[in-house]
């Protein structure tokens, strides 16, 4: 497995937030070498064939070697680009012989203290991370699809709350699909150079991934706004409100993604748009996500404050105590799902504690959709009751068995 492919796994965050990446060290290494190669080739072209004796100028993929006479030993300092990995002051030499240049001695990876291979433990770690998030997204995708079908199939479950849940489920499904598409497009082969890859397909996969991540964050924000409105008794069940939520969840990300696409096309149309080297245009995407996370966190704190007040036995009435306790349970379940951990990572450097960041954002984040589906569909009492009643009706039609529970089943539309 190549170094570029190993590090390429980092880019799949569009994940997790993808995703707020900067220039990766390996890409900086490649870009620096490409620049040095261009300068060397330009120098060789300028010198021409001024001398046919001795060893000619040449580029060995790392260093530019000057013209030398037979028997001359040439020493070159370790390229500055190696300082990206380790501080070193070593040097490499070559002898000019009658047969041409000798091999470099000592070899680059020894003289410049750079390992020529990725340690097996690191290879195993990145391979494990990729396996875990692939399994996580796959399982989440299947379970979320089943949950969406259940909420759409039963008429009694069609309400504003479940409408918002369905949209959130769909964003998790799209995010999982986007990860698979991006992996297949950018990292399908070990020989793929993601630093210089620039095709319509790879750019489209990156754009789609960014949109899915943004819409997921905004629908998490919608969930917080809706719950906050319920607690303040300020939500009115109308199509206008649902259209407003849909515009916020699906429409606002389209606006920012379109602005970002235009900025990349006209100002930074480089590589596959998945690398951002101190790009100010990256804040077109990162900014709204950071703001949504901050607003989400504030809303959750406000929800907790309201519930603490309303659940005071001295202030609430017997009739509505069960309603507020139910909302309290929902709020406590929402807290770990509203991206609270991103409050920490969004204000730290992208390469701060990479192992921990990969574990949380890629591995744990890939199972987030599964957890949402379980909590808000399969463990929902109204869903369980409706599925149970459907099972009883099926038994009645198939075997003529009428359950007492089926005779007296009455359930109000959940809202």
From TrEMBL:
GO biological process, one term: cell surface receptor signaling pathway
InterPro entries, per the entry: GPCR_2, GPCR_2-like_7TM, GPCR_2_extracell_dom_sf, GPCR_2_extracellular_dom, GPCR_2_GHRH_rcpt, GPCR_2_secretin-like, GPCR_2_secretin-like_CS
Matches recorded under SMART domains: HormR (SM00008)
Assigned keywords, A-Z: Cell membrane, Disulfide bond, G-protein coupled receptor, Glycoprotein, Membrane, Receptor, Signal, Transducer, Transmembrane, Transmembrane helix
Transmembrane segments: 131-154, 163-181, 217-235, 242-261, 281-308, 329-348, 354-379
Pfam families in the cross-refs: 7tm_2, HRM
Membrane topology: Multi-pass membrane protein
Compartments where located: Cell membrane
Domain G-protein coupled receptors family 2 profile: 39-116, 129-380
Leader sequence residues: 1-19
Main localization, broad class: membrane
GO cellular component, one term: plasma membrane
The keyword Nucleus appears for this protein: no
Molecular function GO terms recorded: G protein-coupled peptide receptor activity; growth factor binding; growth hormone-releasing hormone receptor activity; peptide hormone binding
Described purpose of this protein according to its UniProt entry: Receptor for GRF, coupled to G proteins which activate adenylyl cyclase. Stimulates somatotroph cell growth, growth hormone gene transcription and growth hormone secretion.
Family membership: Belongs to the G-protein coupled receptor 2 family.
PANTHER family: GROWTH HORMONE-RELEASING HORMONE RECEPTOR (PTHR45620:SF14), PDF RECEPTOR-LIKE PROTEIN-RELATED (PTHR45620)
Protein name as annotated: Growth hormone-releasing hormone receptor
Organism for this UniProt entry: Cottoperca gobio
């Amino acid at each position: 497995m190549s170094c570029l492919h190993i590090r390429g796994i980092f880019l799949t965050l569009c994940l997790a937030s993808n995703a707020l990446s900067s220039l990766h060290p390996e890409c900086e290494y490649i870009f620096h070498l490409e620049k040095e190669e261009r300068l060397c080739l330009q120098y060789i072209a300028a010198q021409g064939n001024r001398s046919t004796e001795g060893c000619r100028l040449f580029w060995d993929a790392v260093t530019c070697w000057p013209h030398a006479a037979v028997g001359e030993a040439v020493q070159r300092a370790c390229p500055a680009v190696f300082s990206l990995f380790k501080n070193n002051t070593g040097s490499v030499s070559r002898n000019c012989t009658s047969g041409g240049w000798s091999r470099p001695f000592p070899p680059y990876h020894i003289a410049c203290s750079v390992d020529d291979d990725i340690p097996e433990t690191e290879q195993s770690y990145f391979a494990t991370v990729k396996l875990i998030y692939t399994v996580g997204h796959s399982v989440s995708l299947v379970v979320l699809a089943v949950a969406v079908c259940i909420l759409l199939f039963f008429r009694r479950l069609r309400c504003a709350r479940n409408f918002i849940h369905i949209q959130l489920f769909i964003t998790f499904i799209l995010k999982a699909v986007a990860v698979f598409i991006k992996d297949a497009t950018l990292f399908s082969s070990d020989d793929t150079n993601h630093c210089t890859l620039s095709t319509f397909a790879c750019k489209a996969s990156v754009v789609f991934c960014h949109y899915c991540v943004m819409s997921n964050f905004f629908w998490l924000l919608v969930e917080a706004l809706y719950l906050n409105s319920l607690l303040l008794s300020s939500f009115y069940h109308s199509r206008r409100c649902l259209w407003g939520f849909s515009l916020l969840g699906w429409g606002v990300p389209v606006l920012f993604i379109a602005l970002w696409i235009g900025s990349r096309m006209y100002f930074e149309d480089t590589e596959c748009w998945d690398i951002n080297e101190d790009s100010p245009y990256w804040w077109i995407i990162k900014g709204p996500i950071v703001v949504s996370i901050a607003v989400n966190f504030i809303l959750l704190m406000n929800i907790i404050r309201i519930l603490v007040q309303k659940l005071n036995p001295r202030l609430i009435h017997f009739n509505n105590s069960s309603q507020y306790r139910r909302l309290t349970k929902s709020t406590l379940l929402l807290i770990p799902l509203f991206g609270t951990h991103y409050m920490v990572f969004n204000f730290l450097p992208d390469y701060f504690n990479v192992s921990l960041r990969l574990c949380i954002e890629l591995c744990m984040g890939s199972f987030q959709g599964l957890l949402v589906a379980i909590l808000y569909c399969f463990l929902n009492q109204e869903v369980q009751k409706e599925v149970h009643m459907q099972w009883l009706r099926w038994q009645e039609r198939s075997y003529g068995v009428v359950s007492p529970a089926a005779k007296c089943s009455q359930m109000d539309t959940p809202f």
